[in-house]
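User: Hi! Is it possible to get a structure for several chains at once, not just one? Here's what I have:
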Amino acid sequence: MASITRASVSMPSLSTSVNQSQRRISVMNSVSFPVSGRSMIPSLRLQRGLQVCCAAKQETVDKVVAIVKKQLALPADAAVTGESKFAALGADSLDTVEIVMGLEEEFDITVEEESAQSITTVQEAADMIEKLVEK
Amino acid sequence: MLSFLRRSYLNFSFMNPQYCCLSRNFSAALPPLLPVQLPSRMETHLWYVVPDEVKSAPLLSKYMELLPQSERDHVLGFRGDQLQKSALLARTLVRTTIARYQVDGHLDPRSLRFKRNIHGKPEVEWETKDGFCPPPLQFNISHTSSLVACGVTINSLIGIDVEEKRRRTKNNILAFAKRYFTAHEVEHLNAIPDSELQQQEFIKLWTLKEAYVKALGKGFSSSPFNTFTIRASSGIAVETLDSPQNLTNNWQFALLELMGSHYVAICLERQETGGAGKTLPIKLTARKTIPFVEDELVSGTNAVVTIGGSVTQF
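Assistant: Yes, the chains can be modeled jointly so their relative placement is included. Here is the combined structure:
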């Protein structure tokens, strides 16, 4: 919990331009957080007004998150949201293909390789699933 | 100033602050990079770093200082210590390695600029000053949390992929292969009765296929894995589905076992043949390195074992 506090306090300094060594050091000080400094609130519904009505989208995102966590062996309480990038979470190309395969099985869809490469975040995966499921 | 710097290293959480007996004082400036000769047209250079062997917090901090802000942000965007460290080492390895070849007459890894070609493959963006014609240096990087590697050639397109031998897929291997590999490759895997060996064969195939796609430089989606077969019975060759009768002769492969723990697959654009269509072996020089600290020539030792393809190590 303390580390999350540190993360949320230190976020503004990440955008500070770091020309002098002292400021550079202070950025280094503030960026060591073990969890993503992005939104800690798992539900996107509150964050993105457009999605308030679409419970399916949240459910899709949640399923994608579960598959990603399983593939990357992340703890259940790891902060993974729509914005989370697979690569940043530690997914290499084999993990990404396995995640896509997991999504195909979960949602009974087929993802063409051309589309697979453009999926880099949880939200992109969820959006693509929604499109394919609609067909 | 120095103690302030030292204190700040401890907060860089992926750095181990317990390394107290530094033989070099990295609170001061980094020593100069030792230059190396460019590979000849027939040679491939393989450089690698073992992240677990790089423990000095001040050294890692210095590596970070070599990177432009965009690359630092990229490194810090990775979740967790290990991922950040291997991402940092990958950028450091590619910058210091290319700088050491002194292509533009000086050795500053900070001044290198990179761009992506139209397909997204990273390339060096050389400064074009006064009739300077940069040599056609080709490189490719691959990393896992336990190994960071960079392959370099002159002129020959190169793709490399590294993977831990013991890497396990979450999905069943044959189910995965049926979905993503070609029928021939599925047959090859299916014919292996021992599950441990089957797992290793799968990883070898995966790294070879990745290396090929990375050498082509057009991305995974333009060369889906089920559109080409890697045949690895005698020698290694690639056969594309659209011309099944002709083994695609433009590419040659090497498969290495590194330190007994990793597979390294290298795919190279074939430059010359030995006459009558015969392929010359890949001439490989492999070095383990810690940038600014040490190099160890490991080709021809137990650290680098050729397990596929025709390779001469020296």
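Residues 1-56 of chain A have pLDDT under 50 and may be disordered. Residues 55-71 of chain A form the longest helix (17 residues).

User: Great, thank you!
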